[in-house]
Amino acid sequence: MPSRLSHSAKADRNRFIALYVVIALGLLVAAGMFVYEARVIVDDSVRDEEAFAVLGAANSVLDNLEDAETGQRGYLLTGDESYMSPNRQGVQDLDDTGLRLQQAVTGDEKSLELVRRIEHAKTAKVTELARSIELARSGNRAAAIALVQTNEGKRYMESLRSDLGQLLNDWREKRRVAARDAHVRLVYGTAALAVVAVLVCCLLVYTLFIQRCAFAKIHAHSAALDREAAHDPLTGLPNRHRLLAAIDALATPSADDLRRTGLLYLDIDGFKSVNDALGHSAGDALLCELGEALRVATRKQDMLARVGGDEFVLLATDCGDDEQLRQLAGRVIARVREVGDKRYAGRFQIGVSIGIATYPDRTDTVEQLLEVADAAMYASKKDGRSTYRFGISPGRSASNVVKMMR
Questions:
Q1: Which residues pair with 401 in a beta bridge?
Q2: What single string gives the DSSP state of each residue in 328-353?
Q3: What is the Cα–Cα distance from 284 to 18, expressed in whole angstroms?
Q4: Sheet holding 351-359, edge to edge
Q5: Of the candidates 358, 394, 369, which has an alpha carbon nearest to the alpha carbon of residue 307?
Q6: pTM of the complete model beyond 0.70
Q7: Architecture (CATH level 2) of domain 240-403
Q8: What is the pLDDT of residues 25-50, one digit of tens each?
Q9: DSSP letter for each residue of 63-75
Q10: Where in the chain is the domain with CATH 3.30.70.270?
Q11: Does domain 3-204 have CATH number 1.20.120.420?
């Protein structure tokens, strides 16, 4: 793998790792934040329940005391024992509601202090109620009413209502703050979730973009490798490997309807003289120019390949009769001579010797085309160069051909 592609792959890998780390960290931070917010919301819910319990217990204390006081006054005014039922029920319930109130405010020093004061006022009020009722039952209603008129019980109730009111206000505020905090955190949590979701989606889209770019680079590199494996690095023409693959493709079962195919084996005359006199760089430049000239002289559907050194092969599918091949060989010879004359002005005699083989009339198989054309090319070179000869497989007979000898 080329160094540049290797560096690019490493950079892409590092970007992938960085993106995945960022996504993972983002999700972990978001999860931690949501856990914290959920815990706070749960705490707010607990405080709301505590406030609800305190409010309920405080209101029950006040209701029970008012029931006890109502029963006491009814009894004192009428002497009817039936009025004592609310009094007894209220006093009986006070113990339970007082205990619930004390348990509900556990952990809050200010509230505990208020509850202690409420408990003291409650006890004093219950005692005052009991004393007035006992006086009335002993037949001293006037003394009982006089006790009520001292406003001692009223002061206890006023103190109790003041402390209960403060307690209720404190816990109403706590409940309101807890509800507002839970609502705000829920809104912010939802917004944060939406932001995290958008960021994660953006990161994923960016990751897909980087992956696509990375895959495009890999595909381009793979295509470049395939091209390098099938093409001559000097001229850019198909190489021997690509040519043999094309010949093999003509012999596949899918090519049963194959039309007449010709193969021209080209060997550049005078190339060695250029290499010896001017050096390999001049020879390479000549080969590149010849490759371009030969490409122009051939048809679009034909394959021109460089098979090594100064040798080229032209695979002409659907070549028709021999006259087409003679015309093609003539154009090739003319183009090569033009390049030599233009480049060296007669200093070097540049030409091309061509061997031609055709299937199925002169070779038994498609695979024999290259071998038969190669033998014909050597015969052409012996006959004076810059000409062409047709070749034929052993055992076949035809005119105007060179018979290949094994």
A1: 390
A2: HHHHHHHHHHHHHHHHHTTSS--EEE
A3: 48
A4: 303-308, 311-316, 261-269, 351-359, 388-392, 401-403
A5: 369
A6: no
A7: 2-Layer Sandwich (3.30)
A8: 877 877 777 777 777 777 767 777 87
A9: HHHHHHHHHHHHH
A10: 240-403
A11: no
